[in-house]
Amino acid sequence: MPDLAVITGTTHGIGRVTARELAGAGYAVVMLCRDLLAAHEVRDEILQKIPGASIDPITCDLASFASVRAAAAIVRERYGPIRLLINNAGITTMKHRLSVDGFELNFAINHLGPFLLTELLRERMAAPGRIINVASRVHLRGGLDLAGVRSVPRRFNSLAMYAQSKLANVLHTFALARRLAGTAVTANCLHPGVVASNLLPRWLRLIKPLISPQTFDVERGAETTLFLALDTSVARESGKYFDEFHMVRPALATAEDVALQEALWEASTRWVGLSAPSC
User: What is the pTM of this model?
Assistant: First the structure.
């Protein structure tokens, strides 16, 4: 049977390209997507290019812990060991919104949903296996306010909230890599580059020169994800942050703070309803 890859957010952008390329590399691909109709359209497109590919869409709304749990249960029931788990889906919002579970939406979708999904599927990871979190260089402008992710701010700062969620991705990756040490499963995160899209918020267009020297199309934007998923040279790399040119780069110094990593892990564990911090 082909190796299994589980990917979030494959209905557009770099996730769509990642799903197609992994199917072309011979993986059975499980696409976890909020819009199941769009996911089936992507599946049909991939099958036209790669006849016989194994592509299975499953509904998963990362803004809902219940939806994440339901999707993870289906994956555990239907499939065997997971070779690749790619937390690709993400959003940026221009207005303050709360998830159905009461968390700031950037933080809920970009961090808490993927955190819960990863913990629910971690024991099903194959050996060797790779967990890949799509973060962003914007995390370098981030801070972590754990007390504020459930409150309504007097003034909403879209950049700050997105940067916080991306910093959480890096903190999560580093803490996860420590927990995976001594196993054959790795965890890494990456900055894909600034990918050309009409969905880019104005603030990201304005700070683009600070975070990437150029803008990529979605094909190029998926390259670092695919590098971390497929390249043999990084098979044993873990706990690293890669840039859009496949190079290991220093993360924000705050992201290296083990105490902060553990504070986020403990809070995330509690918020998503896991029984105890996973070690």
Answer: 0.94
